[in-house]
Amino acid sequence: MGGNEITAALTTSALEKRTGVPRTTIYFYIRQGLLPEPQKTATGRSLFGEHHVELLWKIGELKHRGYSLPEIKQALEPELEEARQNDVDLALLETERVRAAIIEAASQEFEANGYRGTHVMTVIQKMGINPHIFYRHFPSKFDLLLECFKASVPLPLAPDVVDETEIGENVVRGLGVNGTWTHLSSALTEAIRTESPLPPETARHVAEVWDDITINVLRDFAKVRKPDSPPLPVREELLVYSMYGAYRSTTMRASWDDKFTAEELMRAQLFLFFAIIAAVSGEVDLRPYMDKFGPALHEAAQKVTGIPAAL
User: Fold this and answer.
1) What is the pLDDT at residue 236?
2) How many Å from the N-terminal Cα to the C-terminal Cα in the chain?
3) How far does Cα 10 stand from its chain's mean position?
4) Neighbours of 261 (CB within 10 A)
5) Under 8 Å CB-to-CB from 236, ≥6 apart: which residues?
6) Phi, psi angles (nearest 5°) of residue 306
7) Which of these, 12, 22, 144, 163, is most buried using a 10 Å CB contact count?
8) Mean pLDDT value of segment 225-254
């Protein structure tokens, strides 16, 4: 029973439910030295670990075999000493559990109702927690949405793993995950426009989250780009954003009826990716087309409004 095996913090109620031992008995065993003292949260709530569960089961087994309490204490002394030495921060585990539960509940709300239609109080009531607990984790609705979005996206692969992947594998991997992040991406776009201009620190946080999403595709671009290739007429980062925006739009279109299958949507996204790869690698030169329409693009850009200054 090593320290690494403790994976959850249990409240008194949870420990009662898990073991079937009433709290009066649990605290009696603590006073008798048969259980280690629980850890305390900042608000004074008791937290127990898996070692408490195991010890309660063993106490019950030894009592059933006719052991007295002093005999049980002596028999369990090695386990008790190991439990006392355990340095796992149960309060931190509980904090992380509550945070993850809030993110899960809020993600469902944002996915169903968007940014404006989601209310913090609804999430708080759904969780059955006090508002001060919520705001200890998330200072605002925008921060909550950003963390929900971050939790929903496929994590970037480590560089050594990426080097072993085939071109396009990262895109297929991203398409294969739960589509929640696509819906939350729409909610995040709505939030950015609603809250614009974003404070500089918040804007940096948004950029960091998106960096984690785009990095693997940018690594694919770097793989195919030849050292002597001329510079692209567009920024590679914007190509990746355009890809994700296109997938979000096709997913939205597919929600109207059953004309398109999920595989067709993914195939279209993969096709778009390889079309971009062809341009990035130099296999296809699009610069003449870009140069031809450059003046018209410049003129059209002067008329664009509504793009948040923070981005």
Assistant:
1) 92
2) 50
3) 23
4) 10
5) 218, 221, 280
6) 90, 0
7) 144
8) 87
Would you say 48 and 38 are in contact if contact means Cβ atoms under 8 Å apart? Answer: yes
- Rounded alpha-carbon distances, angstroms, from residue 105 to 98, 118, 132, 145, 192: 11, 11, 17, 11, 21
pLDDT tens column, 24-38: 999 999 999 999 988
CB-based contact 76:59 (threshold 8 Å): yes
And the tokens for 130?
Answer: 């006090």
- CA dist 291 and 304 (Å) reads 20
Give dist(CA 57, CA 82) in Å, integer: 16
Residues 153 and 180 sit within 8 Å (Cβ to Cβ)? no
Distance CA(122)–CA(156), nearest Å, equals 32
For 213, list phi and psi in degrees, rounded to 5.
Answer: -80, -40
d(CA 112, CA 124): 16
Regarding beta strands 46-47 and 39-40, do their DSSP bridges make them parallel or antiparallel, or are they unpaired? antiparallel
Q: Measured between alpha carbons, how far is 85 from 75 in angstroms, rounded to an integer? A: 18
The per-residue pLDDT for range 275-291, each reduced to its tens digit, is: 999 999 988 888 899 89
**CB contact at 8 A, 253 and 276:** no
DSSP state of 291: H
User: What is the pLDDT of the chain when averaged over all its residues?
Assistant: 86
Q: What are residue 40's phi and psi, to 5 degrees?
A: -120, 140
pTM for the whole thing?
0.65
Please name every residue paired with 48 in a beta bridge, in sequence order, or none if there are none.
Answer: 10
pLDDT of 4 reads 36
Is it the case that residue 182 has pLDDT exceeding 80?
no
Give the distance from CA 90 to its chain's centroid.
Answer: 21
Please, is 159 exposed, middle or buried when counting C-beta atoms within 10 Å of its C-beta (0-12, 13-18, 19+)? exposed
Tokens of 303: 């008329």
